[in-house]
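Notes from the 1:1 (GR / supervisor)

We went over the backlog. Supervisor wanted to see one worked example end to end before approving the batch request, so GR pasted a single chain during the call. The sequence is below; no edits were made to it. Supervisor asked that the structure be written out right there so they could see what the output format looks like.
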Amino acid sequence: MAFIPAGQRVTPQATAGSEADDARLPRHIAVIMDGNGRWAQQRGLPRIEGHRRGVASVRRITEHCVRRGIEQLTLYCLSSENWRRPEAELRFLMHLLEQYMVEERGLLMRQGIRLSMIGRREGLPPETLEALDRTVALCSANSGMRLCLAINYGSRAEIADAARALARDAAAGRLDPNEIDEAALASRLDTAGMPDPDLLVRTAGEMRISNFLLWQISYAELWITPTAWPEFEERHLDEAIAAFAGRDRRFGGLSPS
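Structure output shown during the call:
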């Protein structure tokens, strides 16, 4: 992983919207949408108002990723650790998710977006899962950008689940333990078949990964902005993409020069 601080000076060739930038777009952008509650509290509002405002940012950034030609956008909606939050806030988050699944169907279909979910279904309200499943099914034949929602997701749990799947296959004689490699484990993760994120964006200035896609972001570029998610706009995403385009990605090797 390489860290790109927000506001870092980039070369003119890597400015947002330039030909060089378009030629070096990240295939897959993952976002830790942080700062909703703090944004609201700083304005004397209930935390839930920050989450409500954050939904508008989801819509805005999803549409902009489609315009920019991004192949996949993964959004960290609810971590497995977030269940420690107040019950009223969690109920509201589930309501917002269910509402989003219903109200955004028209947009998802117009944009040709494919929808998927990663994370554990256990613990999510049945009505929320029903709305999610119906929208995923509706979008299944679309051929545009993939929008992946990480809900009740924790990367350590995901890796543990994959290890258990490998152990079951080995115990049943379907897999030689000596043949277990990175590809075998990756194929049993929730993200099997998806490209690894090229760019990880975190809002609200926190300098941590928060148990998000730990395996998948091994060589992702990190871009951290102090801007809270409710105020994250297209220009911020363009800045992140421009910074990404200006990076020399060596994947552990040396640059050709």
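Supervisor's comment: The mean pLDDT is 91.
Batch request approved.
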